[in-house]
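During the reporting period the student researcher (J.K.) took over the structure-prediction task from the postdoctoral fellow and processed the backlog of single-chain submissions. One of the processed entries is reproduced below for the supervisory committee.
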Amino acid sequence: MNASELLDRYAAGERNFRDTDLFRADLNGANLIGITLFRANLFGADLFRADLSGANLFRANLIGANLQNANLSGANLSGAELIGANLAGADLSGADLSNADLSGVDASHANLNYADLSRTTLMRSTLVETNFYRANLCYANLKRANATDAIWTEAVLTGAVGLPDSALDRRAAS
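J.K. obtained the following structure tokens:
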């Protein structure tokens, strides 16, 4: 399926695109609120400023995808592969990213308030000024992540490994 067909079918009211192949699809600025892309292949897709709020992207392949400034609030990205994806400025508030692989992502200035990042891999990720307010990072792997000026207020960090100094300082103060 190509991006144009997906957008046409979505506009006609269809929401279930489970297991769809959208390899390198151009969905820049697309309004896809509540879409189901369960196990979809979105490798290298351009989702810049797309609205995927409430979307189901469970176990989706988003390796190398451009999600800069995208709205993924309340989305289910559990088990998704986002290796090397661009999440800079994205809104992931309340999103479920449990067991997802975010190795090497750029999530600078992203909003992860109340997000579930339990057992998530964030190795070598750029998390500069990322907001983790009340996020769940239990057993997350943050080894070699750059989290300069990240906000860790009330984040749950139990069992997380590779925590940056800013997170350790916050945990020691509480």
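The committee noted the following: Residues 3-11 form the longest helix (9 residues).
J.K. will present the remaining backlog at the next meeting.
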